[in-house]
């Protein structure tokens, strides 16, 4: 029976049909006649791409899927056939995202956040076009538009304020240490959270280096372990939570981390939002480029796949 179900599933996908329990039953019985739906396409795309894309990327696709399903539930009775996917649908979805009011702690989507979800939906629809499940690309006339975002970073003075701040509250002290470690290594949150002692090795120069791969792009990076970063890391060498997880630092969710960073910024009177993006920008500008490190070296340490991305930081210096 499992073989029949699997064969029916793939038969439906290949023919551009809606994959449901009823559709599988009908396929086995030889009487399937439904078209591939948008929800089925998203499920298929995310299932097929899960092993080939980074966890963070897949998390973003699942979030986009959630927004699309919310829109479909609100305006289309829960789902539509791919044949009903039009340019108007895309424009309406864009407006829905722009007006969407989160009921939890999350902020309202900014214009670039809206475009990111549209961009991911487009990639899923492109799969349908490639697989011949759609004869016409509904995105053909759509033009994405991103707002230019200024790449903020901490100044030397702001960094000094944070370095000299001592918190009695343990959670704030730990989050500040991890943020500063990112400022001195350029590691993204997820890369720092999963960093292990095995990744710290002695380089050919005799100094300690971080040898790891960026989870977002699977790019190999080599980063010199600066004295301040080493001191921060050593504070947690005997931390039971870090030892239990096999990581350099105890694990704190990114969601909680951002909330604590906001609290730290208010206490320290830092007028820049503290995020791990800001920490990476600080490493790129204040720590490296401003001190004469070649942009090619900075690009490699940040794990950028294109030096053009790093050149954005160079314009700030």
Automatic annotation (TrEMBL):
GO terms for biological process: DNA integration; DNA recombination. Keywords: DNA recombination, DNA-binding. GO terms for molecular function: DNA binding. CDD domains: INTN1_C_like (cd01185). The keyword DNA-binding applies. Residues 149-317 form the Tyr recombinase domain. Gene3D superfamilies: 1.10.150.130, Intergrase catalytic core. Pfam families: Phage_int_SAM_5, Phage_integrase. InterPro entries: DNA_brk_join_enz, Integrase-like_cat_sf, Integrase_catalytic, Integrase_recombinase_N, SAM-like_dom, Tyrosine_recombinase_XerCD. Belongs to the 'phage' integrase family. This is Transposase. The lineage of its organism: Bacteria, Pseudomonadati, Bacteroidota, Sphingobacteriia, Sphingobacteriales.
């Amino acid at each position: 029976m499992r073989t029949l179900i699997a064969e029916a599933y793939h038969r439906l996908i290949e023919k551009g049909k809606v994959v449901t329990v009823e559709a599988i039953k009908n396929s086995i019985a030889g009487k399937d006649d439904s078209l591939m739906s948008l929800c089925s396409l998203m499920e298929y795309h995310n299932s097929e791409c899960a092993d080939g894309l980074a966890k963070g990327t897949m998390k973003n696709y699942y979030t986009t899927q959630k927004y699309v399903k919310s829109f479909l539930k609100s305006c289309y009775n829960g789902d539509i056939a791919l044949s009903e996917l039009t340019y108007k649908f895309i424009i309406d979805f864009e407006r829905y995202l722009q007006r969407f009011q989160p009921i939890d702690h999350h902020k309202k989507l900014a214009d670039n956040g809206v475009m990111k979800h549209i961009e991911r939906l487009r990639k899923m629809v492109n799969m349908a076009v490639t697989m011949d499940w759609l004869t016409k690309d509904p995105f053909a006339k759509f033009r994405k538009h991103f707002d230019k975002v200024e790449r903020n970073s901490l100044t030397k003075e702001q960094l000094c304020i944070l370095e000299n701040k001592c918190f009695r509250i343990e959670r704030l002290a730990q989050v500040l240490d991890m943020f500063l470690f990112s400022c001195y290594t350029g590691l993204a949150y997820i890369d720092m959270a999963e960093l292990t002692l095995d990744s710290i090795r002695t380089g050919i120069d005799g100094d300690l280096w971080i040898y790891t791969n960026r989870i977002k792009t699977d790019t190999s990076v080599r980063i010199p372990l600066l004295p301040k970063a080493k001191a921060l890391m050593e504070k947690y060498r005997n931390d039971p939570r870090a030892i239990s997880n096999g990581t350099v630092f105890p694990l704190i969710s990114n969601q909680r981390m951002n909330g604590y960073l906001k609290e730290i910024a208010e206490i320290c009177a830092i007028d820049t939002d503290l995020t791990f993006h800001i920490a990476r920008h600080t490493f790129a500008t204040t720590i490296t480029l401003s001190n004469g490190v070649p942009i090619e070296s900075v690009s490699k340490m940040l794990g950028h796949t294109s030096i053009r991305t790093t050149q954005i930081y160079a314009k700030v210096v």
